[in-house]
Structure prediction request, 156 residues.
Amino acid sequence: MNSNVEVVAIDHEPDAAEAQKLAEEVDIILACPPTFAERMRLNEAAVSAGKPLIDAAQWGMMGSLIVTDPGRTACLRCIYPDEPEFEEFFPVVGAISSAIGSLAALEAIKLLSGTGRSMAGRMLMFDGHDSRTRMMDLQRDPECPVCGGINRPAVE
Prediction:
């Protein structure tokens, strides 16, 4: 519907090389894969390409949203130095997916349009059990094996 937007769908999980190639071709990366391995692969591609990453995740009644800006904010590896064990069958509540997905889309719109204040460098946690949200500032790990050596000036 918008001639300035191109959407390319892929029907498989990209390996590291394909993820890197795709990251270099886009303006922003929205990630919502089920495993940490996939999330970390997209994180590495985003950092390498210097592209913002919006990571949306959920487990049962809990949801999280992280926006990273390579060289300026913590990347996913800074936040999760060790990948937790993956549960192959984990609970998914559609309302949580919908809420976190809508917030991820809003962050993408803000980043792409330059409107509003991005939540880059912060993590939003949503607890659906008692309808509470929590926003946390994230700190970069200067020794991070993914982004530790990359620095970009702050945006005023």
Q: What stands out?
A: The longest strand covers residues 53-59. The chain is about 30% helix and 20% strand. Residues 94-113 form the longest helix (20 residues). The chain has a mean pLDDT of 90.
